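Q: Convert this sequence to structure tokens.
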Amino acid sequence: MRIRRILAAVSATAALAGLGLTGAATATAATAQGAPVVGPHQCMDGGGTPRIDLPGNPCVGGKYDGQPVD
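A:
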């Protein structure tokens, strides 16, 4: 009986630790992704101007203002 309780406690702890790591990985991936990249034509169709001469290659103005242009 004691072994079953110990195994149950160890399993529960491992499961909770796994969930914590999964949540941290998801949060890190979301942060690393940043703003979605738009194409030059998509930027212009949204009313903006692709400014590849500026740092970060942003779309300036329009629907995609501030998003990087690829």
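The CA atoms of residues 3 and 47 lie 67 Å apart.
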